[in-house]
Amino acid sequence: MTATGRRLRADAERSVQAILEAAERVLKEDPAATLEQIAEAAGVARTTVHRRFANRDALLAALAESAWRQIAGAVEGARPATAPPLVALHQATANILAIKSGWTFALGQPATNEEIGRLQQAVYAACDEVFRRAQQAGDIRAGVDLAWARQVYLALINETAHGPTGGGEPDAAAARILDVLFHGIG
């Protein structure tokens, strides 16, 4: 899609995707990399990058938005409102871990536009819904502060994805996260 909401041609969509993927790789290695370096890594002309993104800030916003769109889709795919809470939580966790490792730089960027903020809020709201449902089902004690539980859960995901041991296989890592979240380490 363009900034005006028009759909891009298939070849233009591929170029944008190649630029975003290259930007993630290049910027993860060198956050000060230029648009020219990103164009080279994407295998496109510098003018193609400038035609698709008005400036570096626009590219960074598109990068973060693309990553958050994938996270939101992964969470939605776990059926947080209808699947049994622990099943939805496990699936969402595995889905997020599979995405997070590929978008380290993008997901570390602040929300710079309304769409990124909306996507983040949708992800957090789905998480809160699953936690509420898990508490109603008795999987989380009645007195637990669910906002705090979400913070702990997100910290576990982040540490798993970016910590020194790496995430490993997403399904096994999700099981490990939920085991620590629900049973502690004691």
Task: Please give a structural write-up.
With 186 residues, the protein is mainly alpha-helical. The protein has 2 domains: 1-53, Arc Repressor Mutant, subunit A (Orthogonal Bundle), CATH 1.10.10; 63-183, Orthogonal Bundle (Tetracycline Repressor, domain 2), CATH 1.10.357. It is built from 9 helices and no strands. It has helices at 10-29, 35-42, 46-52, 56-77, 85-100, 104-107, 114-136, 146-162, 170-183. Helix 7 crosses helix 8. The longest helix has 23 residues, at 114-136. The relative contact order is 0.10. The mean pLDDT is 89.
Shape: elongated
Radius of gyration: 18 Å
Distance between the termini: 49 Å
Figure out the total of helices: 9
Number of strands: 0
Query: CATH topology of the largest domain, anyone?
Result: Tetracycline Repressor, domain 2
**How much beta, percentage-wise?**
under 5%
Q: Tell me the name of the CATH class of the largest domain.
A: Mainly Alpha
Assigned CATH architecture of the largest domain:
Orthogonal Bundle
Helix and strand topology:
Layout: H1 10-29, H2 35-42, H3 46-52, H4 56-77, H5 85-100, H6 104-107, H7 114-136, H8 146-162, H9 170-183
Helix pairs in contact: 1-2, 1-4, 2-3, 4-5, 4-7, 5-7, 5-8, 5-9, 7-8, 8-9
Pfam family, one: TetR_N
InterPro entries: Homeodomain-like_sf, HTH-type_TetR-like_transc_reg, HTH_TetR, Tet_transcr_reg_TetR-rel_C_sf
Protein name: TetR/AcrR family transcriptional regulator
